[in-house]
Write a structure and sequence with these properties.
Length: about 375
């Protein structure tokens, strides 16, 4: 018999290997994350390095990449892992996404063989932590207007500028930094101990509190010529990395939604009001039914995009459809679940409002909902409305 929330028996459409990967990640999350994540969130602290090493032992870091110690898993398997990770907390999934789909992917896709050999094996094990520096204090949704610059000085490059809202930055060993040059936007592999690089942790966050976020300042950072990613030419390079990360979010968001709904279903069937369980009231069942339908639709969408990715047919605007829909619906589910839990819905004893707070960030990072609407709109009309 299928689980109550698997209304369409999607589990049967997964391969045995995909189910095994999902179950192993779920067990790791249950053992290592769930008992502690509420405290991490409340304290605004997370043992990110320790988690990264444990995730590395399981092959989760850069798991969809091949070679250099990476697992070479399918896109669907990677998506299922993201779903389980974010079912615990969006910040935990972000640790894995930024490491594998942004920092590692940028080096794997655009780096030299020397850069790959130096960084990817240690990043795959979690011994080295990476971050991805694209967003700036004044330029989030408009990366083409970045002001971080890289200029040539003899054979060297000198970087000046700053990046903001960078996941993993305060604990990172290496950053992939995007900067404007006389030849256009280029990417650079920057060890964080390079003179002139400083990272400051951003505190007082109301969302993604179980995630390390920071600002990077680049003060005349001198790098050798071989620090540049040789294959990264133009803004399309960092945007392709964002597509990789957005794909993981498509799956992750439904993980958060599923956790909210599982929690709420268990609560509503045991919480008694007016002489019977909350789940026995028509209005409650209507809410549960609507949320379950949106959840399974989001899971179907994620699975379809995963199959397209494994067939090498996934397009960026299709990923935008997934992120736009799934994050928006996941946030709606989290908010609706909160209403069923009543006052208990705001308690840290339950994960629902934590997921809702996290999803407020997921709604806007890796492209806001409005940006994804414009990407889809451009695909529909053939007209760009970005400027």
């Amino acid at each position: 018999m299928t689980a109550p929330l698997d209304l369409l028996d999607l589990d049967s459409s997964l391969s045995e290997e995909e189910r095994q990967i999902r179950d192993v990640v779920r067990q790791l999350v249950d053992d290592r994350v769930r008992p502690h994540v509420a405290d991490w969130y409340e304290d605004g602290r997370v043992p990110a390095r320790e988690l990264a090493r444990e995730f590395g032992k399981l092959g989760l870091l850069g798991m969809h990449l091949t070679g250099y110690g990476c697992a070479g898993a399918s896109a669907v398997a990677y998506g299922l892992a993201c779903q389980e990770l974010e079912a615990s907390d969006s910040g935990v999934r972000s640790l894995v996404s930024v490491q594998g789909s942004l920092a590692m992917y940028a080096i794997w896709r655009y780096g030299s063989e020397e850069q790959k050999q130096r960084w990817l094996p240690s990043m795959a094990t979690g011994e080295a932590i990476g971050c991805f520096g694209l967003t700036e204090p004044d330029h989030g949704s408009d990366p083409a207007s970045m002001t971080t610059r890289a200029r040539r000085d003899g054979d060297d490059w000198v970087l000046t500028g700053g990046k903001m809202w960078i996941t993993n930055a305060p604990i990172a060993d290496v950053a992939v930094i995007w900067a404007r040059t006389d030849e256009g936007v280029r990417g650079f592999v920057v060890p964080m101990d390079t003179p002139g690089v400083t990272a400051r942790e951003i505190r007082r966050k109301m969302s993604l509190r179980a995630s390390v976020t920071g600002e990077i300042v680049l003060d005349d950072v001198r790098l050798p010529a071989d620090a540049r990613l040789p294959e990264a030419v133009g803004l399309k390079a960092p945007l392709s990395c964002l597509t990789e990360a957005r794909y993981g979010i498509v799956w992750g968001a439904v993980g958060a939604a599923r956790d909210c709904l599982e929690t709420t279903l268990a609560y509503a069937t045991t919480r008694t009001q007016f002489g019977r369980p909350l789940a026995g009231f028509q209005l409650t069942q209507a809410k549960l039914a609507d949320m379950a339908v949106e959840l399974v639709k989001g899971q179907l969408l994620a699975l379809h995009l995963g199959r397209l990715a494994d067939a090498h047919r996934l397009r960026p605007e299709q990923v935008s459809v997934g992120k736009l829909n799934n994050v928006r619906e996941a946030l709606g589910i989290a908010r609706q679940c909160r209403t069923i839990l009543g006052a208990n819905g705001v308690s840290g004893e339950y994960p629902v409002l934590r997921h809702a707070n996290n999803l407020e960030s997921v709604l806007t990072y890796e492209g806001t909902s409005e940006i994804h609407q414009l990407i889809v709109g451009q695909r529909l009309t053939g007209l760009s409305a970005f400027a």
